[in-house]
Write a structure and sequence with these properties.
alpha+beta; Trypsin Inhibitor V, Chain A; 4 domains; three-stranded mixed sheet; 5 helices; 16 strands; 31% strand; elongated
């Protein structure tokens, strides 16, 4: 230990220490200036304003300032195709020469979307769904249907389209809606011989209403009772009635049902 301390006091140690310190300083300065030269510290250009410019003009401006570019595209219905809508970095940012500037432009070609299932929906429901898909409603027309404003069919460029058909986003379609009036008359069903639940189901399916229900004869089992008569009854002169017409039913357990009348049968 005493020899080491004695060595520290010699001129040889001091000379080697000075050489080492100078060497480290020179090395650090060399690295600093090399990096400064390599990165061109302080040199660069401010990114110009590109948003709102046509893409051709934006590209020419970037190339004139020694900058590169990369383009992505999106589709927006209310934007003019070919316009720059986003840029990265933002305008005014100081960047190196040959830096890549990322541009987002409005594409000229609308992407296709699968037509949504709006059939049997109301007009308000259909309009909300179509808006989410970027599809416009050009006009509407009405046709006979029981439900008001129910979507019955859809046309695009004069052709009927179905769920899943591909059409360009932003397209305008036409809707055919129900008028809520329906047909003025419907076929009168013959429910003679049916049980009461069966008769009710048949009448509702024909858009008719249940009138009065009565029983005739000795009724011991109302569940198994069958329709004996109906008013109005199907006949050669009456086989259509207005929608919503009430039909009265008479049921019985022991009386034979009245034979049904086939209104479509034509006598020879």
């Amino acid at each position: 230990m005493s020899k080491f301390l004695a060595y520290l006091k010699t001129s040889t140690f001091r000379k080697n220490l000075i050489i080492a310190i100078v060497s480290v300083a020179v090395f650090l300065l060399l690295i600093f200036f090399c990096l400064r030269f390599y990165t061109r510290h302080g040199e660069g250009v401010a990114v110009p304003k590109l948003k709102g410019l046509p893409v051709e003009q934006a590209i020419a401006l970037l190339e004139s300032q020694g900058l590169r570019y990369q383009i992505d595209s999106v589709y927006q219905i209310d934007k003019e195709p070919g316009m720059v809508t986003e840029q990265d970095p933002d305008e005014g940012t100081n960047v190196k020469f040959n830096r890549t500037i990322y541009l987002t432009i409005i594409t000229r070609n609308a992407p296709n979307v699968g037509f949504p299932d709006i059939f049997e929906s109301s007009y308000l429901e259909a309009r909300a769904v179509l808006s989410n898909y970027g599809i416009k409603i050009a006009d509407t027309s009405y046709t006979s249907d029981i439900m008001r404003d129910r979507v019955l069919s859809v046309t695009y460029r004069g052709q009927n389209i179905l769920k899943g058909d591909a059409i360009p986003k932003g397209s305008s379609i036409s809707l055919v809606l129900g008028d809520g009036k329906g047909a003025s008359e419907v076929d009168l069903p013959n429910v003679v011989g049916l049980s009461l639940p069966e008769a009710i189901f048949s009448l509702k399916g024909s858009s008719l209403t249940m009138g009065t229900v009565s029983y005739e004869g000795s009724v011991t089992d109302t569940i198994n009772a069958k329709v004996f008569k109906q008013y109005p009854a199907v006949s050669d002169s009456l086989y259509k009635v207005a929608i919503g017409t009430p039909v009265d039913l008479i049921l019985s357990n022991d009386l034979p049902p009245v034979p049904s009348v086939d209104v479509k049968k034509v006598a020879p």
